[in-house]
Structure formats: structure tokens, C-alpha cells
Amino acid sequence: QVQLVQSGADVKKPGASVRVSCKASGYTFSDYYMYWVRQAPGQGLEWMGWINPGSGGTNYAQKFHGRVAMTRDTSITTAYMELSRLASDDTAVYYCAREVRYCANGLCSKSFDYWGQGTLVTVSS
Amino acid sequence: DIQMTQSPSSLSASVGDRVTITCQASQGISNYLNWYQHKPGKAPKLLLYDASNLEAGVPTRFSGGGSGTDFTFTISSLQPEDIATYYCQQYDSLPITFGQGTRLEIK
Questions:
Q1: Handedness of CA B103, B37, A47, B92 (dihedral sign)
Q2: Taking Cα atoms as reference points, which of B104, B98, B106, B107 lies closest to residue B39?
Q3: Average pLDDT over residues A81-92
Q4: Which residues contact A72 (CB under 8 A, 6 or more apart)?
Q5: Which of A85, A98, A94, A83 is nearest to A46 (CA)?
Q6: If you placed Cys at A114, which of A35, A85, A98, B68 could pair as Cys (CB 3.0 to 4.6 Å)?
Q7: Is B99 near chain A, with CB under 8 Å?
Q8: ω before B8 within 30° of 0 (cis)?
Q9: What is the pLDDT of residue A106?
Q10: A11 falls in which pLDDT band (50, 70, 90)?
Q11: Is A66 part of the contact surface with chain B (CB cutoff 8 Å)?
């Protein structure tokens, strides 16, 4: 069965960087884009970007440009999200999510069918 | 960016009630809209894709509709296990955006 297992909670100081991992199993890792979404305390869901595990290509939300890097290691079917220059408002639960696509007649339906369990990143001095 | 506005932001209803949530996009998104259920401490769960298609394994009391800018999400008979926050999400164009969420409580 499909599983996305994320790394554990982390505490960082302002200005530091954090790397969250997402170990995928139960499917062909390179066939599905991996997205990263975060939820700050009391807030809604916020899209951060995606990585194509097959090619390594990425697309980041403008808000995080220059501060986020999404990578993958296909040999261990793991995706990574690294966020640098952390500030207190980066305190959030970070999720990886697999994008599933259904395409027909040139149109593709896209949704997130499997999610990791979430990783709490706390930024505090 | 496409803004997604959900209403209400919170809702209290009784078991067995019919519950409806609306989601409005700031511009037309065809039917490129998904609905997720999010329980505290759990990962979000996909319920509906393309506005009205039920994800496999999701109970049929959940349904959705709409196209363009106005969408609805309905639970036909509220069950205790439906207590959660519900989010709409558009994928018509990047950045992908979510509604602010609707917190559903049992009365």
C-alpha cells in the first residue's frame, strides 16, 4: 500500500535551515509529482511547491523563492524539502503529498491522494 | 493568485443533519476543484476531485457540485466521525490555493 512517512519534529533557531524528508513506498516513486504543503498554527493549508521525482524538476511558490529547495534521492525513494533563513512565522506542520493525475482528451485531473503524517517544525530562539 | 473563499468558516450541526459548505473562486476555474477533510493530528484526506467525483472508498453521503466560480460540498446525513475541517483547493493555475477551511462541529 502507498505510504509517505515523514521525518520527526524539529526545533530550529531563527535564521537556521531545516530539512524535512518524505519516504515513499508502495508505488513507483518517479511516476508521481510530490508536493509540499504547510499549515501554520490556526491557519489554513499553504502550497509551497512541487518536485518531479523522475527528472528532479521543481516549481516553487513565489513566496518561498530563494528560500526553499526540494530535492529527491530516487535510490531510497525519498523526497526532501529544505527551508532556509527560518523565522518564527515558519513554525508550522509541513506535509508532503503525492499528486495523482487522471488524463483524458488532453485534459488532466489533479489531486493529492496520499499525504505524509506531517512534520512539526518549531522556530524559536 | 486565485483566491478561494469558503463559507461558513465554522458550522455546528446535529447528527443526521444535511450540511452544505460553499467555496467561491476569485476567477473561473472550470471544475478544477478538490475537497479535503482534515482531522487534528492527521493528514488531510481527499474526498472529492474535479468538484463532484467521489474518491474511492469515500462514503456516498459526501457530494459536491459546481463549476466556474461557485462550488458546493454537502454531507447528506452528518455522522460523528465527520467532525473535521474541510478545505476546497483549486488547481486551475499556480499557485495552487486552498480555501481558509470550514470547521464542522457537532451540536
A1: negative
A2: B104
A3: 98
A4: A29, A34, A51, A53, A56, A78, A79, A80
A5: A94
A6: A98
A7: yes
A8: yes
A9: 81
A10: very high
A11: no
- B100: contact with A, CB 8 A cutoff: yes
Report residue B9 as a C-alpha cell. Answer: 468558516
Task: Name the pLDDT band for A102 (thresholds 50, 70, 90).
Answer: confident
Total count of residues recorded for chain B:
107
| Residue B107 amino acid letter | K
Max Cα-Cα span within chain B: 38
C-alpha span between B60 and B75 (Å, rounded): 9
Strands (E), chain B: 4-7, 10-13, 19-25, 33-38, 45-49, 53-54, 62-67, 70-75, 84-90, 97-98, 102-106
Span B12-64, pLDDT tens digits: 999 999 999 999 999 999 999 999 999 998 999 999 999 999 999 999 999 99
Task: State how far the Cα of A87 lies from the Cα of A48, in Å rounded to an integer.
Answer: 16
pLDDT in tens, A13-52: 999 999 999 999 999 999 999 999 999 999 999 999 999 9
Pairing of strands B33-38, A45-51: unpaired
- How long a stretch of residues is chain A? 125
Q: Which of B96, B100, B102 to mutate to test the interface with A (most CBs of A within 10 A)?
A: B96
Judge contact between B7 and B22, C-beta under 8 A: yes
A35 in B contact zone (CB under 8 Å): yes
